[in-house]
Design brief:
By secondary structure, this protein is mostly helical. It contains 12 helices and 4 strands. The radius of gyration is 21 Å and the shape is globular.
Length: 392
């Protein structure tokens, strides 16, 4: 027990110190061009640490407010990081960054709906032979993902008002407004009107009683300075206090500022590295998506190991919805400062992968149960996406 408390203390100090160090790195590197290699490596390390710290603090807030609000907090925090990285790279990226928003959003959709979902279904099925979740909640989220992806990423390829796979100005505004409307409607359904659809379920498919009251299935509230959540092996922790949650909220904001600034410092190195390796420019979008979704993947895996597969799906589909529903409006607003056209339409190869993903995902979530096979199929689709991004 003493070792566990000491470990929590160390981790707590780490998550407090890293955002501060990342902000210091931002101040020291701000406005400097041509940073030496060791400086770029240090800033990149601070950037990765700030992302991990940001999502950790989002998880602390999530434990405080309970499900499904916790998944929503985490998804929005990750999406804010993603939007910040996209806008930062597009402002300084020139002509090669015109499709960066599309590449990053599509990568996020494919990684969440296939990679995160596949891993969590595998863990859930290995734990109890069949992973059980709410068909109503998962199918509702999946339908929202499919609609947003089609309206925002597929239709621009077929519109005729402007040449190329992009919207006209009025079409882009319409897409942004509809994305915001759908995202707001989904959040309302998830957190208020049909909250029970998004709670972890028991073997009969009914919401678990320990989540109905608005908690997260853990023990009562902690004393100030205590831990929160659960260990990976399922040991219970107490809920964070209001003071701890408020501190994490403040540190989350600090970490987000650090992420934006540090990304701006290392963006030239990322792009030159991709170009030097002879890789397609779309790989930059995949790198951004992998960076911001890695911590959320860990959170989803932890939920699946605790037999909260529905929470894992909330994280995966919620991130996909937030990625499209918040990124497209943000990029639309950023076009005031970003020069050049905004390319959103997918290529035929990516449209095939998206269509296959939506069909397979529908067959996966509708029964409310999944086996190892469904998890394996989704992981194969994710691998196919990454492979074709590197070798189109």
């Amino acid at each position: 027990m003493t070792t566990r408390i000491t470990l929590r203390t160390v981790l707590s100090r780490w998550t407090v110190a890293v955002p501060v160090v990342a902000v210091i790195a931002l101040v020291l590197s701000w406005g400097r061009k041509g940073l030496p290699g060791f400086a770029v490596a240090l800033v990149a390390l601070c950037l990765a640490g700030a992302v991990l710290a940001a999502v950790h603090h989002a998880e602390v807030v999530a434990h405080r407010v309970g499900e499904p609000f916790g998944s929503l907090v985490l998804a929005v925090a990750v999406t804010l990081i993603e939007v910040a990285l996209i806008v930062t790279l597009m402002i300084d990226g020139g002509a090669k960054s015109h499709s960066l928003a599309r590449d990053t959003v599509f990568a996020a959709v494919m990684i969440t709906t296939n990679g995160i979902v596949g891993v969590c279904l595998l863990i859930g099925a290995l734990r109890r032979r069949v992973a059980v979740f709410s068909a109503e909640g998962a199918s509702t989220a999946l339908a929202t993902v499919g609609t947003l992806a089609t309206l925002g990423l597929v239709l621009p390829t077929f519109t005729t008002s402007t040449p190329g796979p992009r919207f006209s100005g009025t079409q882009l505004v319409f897409a942004a407004l509809t994305a915001l409307a759908l995202y707001g409607l989904f959040v309302s359904v998830q957190t208020v009107r049909h909250r029970e659809y998004f709670l972890p379920v028991d073997d009969t498919g009914r919401p678990r009683e320990d989540f109905r009251a608005g908690g997260d299935g853990d023990a009562p509230e902690e004393e100030p300075g205590g831990g929160a959540g659960e260990d990976d092996d399922g040991e219970r922790h107490v809920r964070p206090s209001g003071r701890a949650a408020l501190l994490s909220l403040l540190l989350l904001l600090v970490a987000l500022v650090a992420v934006v600034g540090d990304a701006k410092a290392v963006s030239p190195t990322i792009e030159s590295g991709v170009e030097s390796a002879g890789l397609p420019q779309a790989v930059v979008g995949v790198v951004i998506a992998l960076l911001v979704l890695l911590p959320e993947t860990l959170a989803a895996v932890r939920a699946a190991r605790r037999d909260h597969v529905q929470t894992s799906l909330n994280l995966a589909y919620g991130s996909a919805i937030a990625s499209i529903g918040l990124t497209i409006p943000a990029i639309t607003l950023a076009t005031v400062w970003i020069k050049g056209p905004l390319v959103l339409g997918l290529s035929p190869t990516h449209m095939v992968l998206l269509a296959l993903t939506l069909i397979v995902s529908g067959l996966t979530v509708l029964p409310g149960r999944a086996t190892l096979l469904q998890g394996g199929v989704h992981l194969v689709l994710c691998a196919a996406f990454v492979f074709l991004a590197v070798s189109p």
